[in-house]
Prior knowledge:
Layout: H1 3-11, E1 20-22, E2 37-47, E3 55-64, H2 70-88, E4 95-104, E5 109-120
Parallel strand pairs: 1-2
Antiparallel strand pairs: 2-3, 3-5, 4-5
Amino acid sequence: MSVRSDLIAxxxxxxPANIKTVDVPRSLDxxxxxxxxxxxxRESVTKAPNKQGAxxxxxxxxxxxxxxxxxxxxxNLDGTLEDVLNGLDQIDWLDWKQAERSTFGDNQAxxxxxxxxxxxx
Length: 121
C-alpha cells in the first residue's frame, strides 16, 4: 500500500457511494461524468519542518460536478462538496485548509480543488 492508496481507502467509506473516486490525475470520460467525482492525487512531498524523518505530503482533491446546466451543477457541487468535507473531517491524520472554486478538465466542469496535507514517518 502507498500513502495515496491508504488515503483513498480511508476516504471511500466516509462519503456517499454515488461519488466515484479516482486516485490518479487524468481526464474523465463521459461515462464517469454522469455522477459526482472525487479525484485525489499527490502533488508534492517535502521534508517536514521537524526534520525528524517525517515527510509532508500534499494532495489535491477535486470535487467535480457531472452537470452541465449551471444551476443544477452548482446545487450538485454544493452538496457533494459538503459530503466530501464531512468525510475528510473524520480522518484525524489528514488536514485541509481551503476548498477553492475552480473548473476541471477540457469541458470546464464545475469543481472545487481542496489541498490536503498529511505526515508520514
